[in-house]
Amino acid sequence: MLLKGYLTVRQVAKELGLTEYRIRQLIREKQIRATKIGQWRIKPGDLQEFVESRKNMR
Q1: Strands 39-42 and 35-37, sheet pairing
Q2: pLDDT digits (tens, 9 = 90+) for 1-17
Q3: Would you list the domain boundaries of the chain?
Q4: What is the rounded distance in angstroms from the CA atom of residue 21 to the CA atom of residue 53?
């Protein structure tokens, strides 16, 4: 079952080009905000916030 409006760890890993293990590490380190609904789920806005926080501002 897909929860509307949430991304799975697998989807986030694929989008960022990282492993699912690394995404779970980032969740544990509280660098990516996530909600546990059976498995970890990430709101697209929270993913965007994480990406924005990683940009090199020059």
Answers
A1: antiparallel
A2: 456 889 999 999 999 99
A3: 7-53
A4: 20
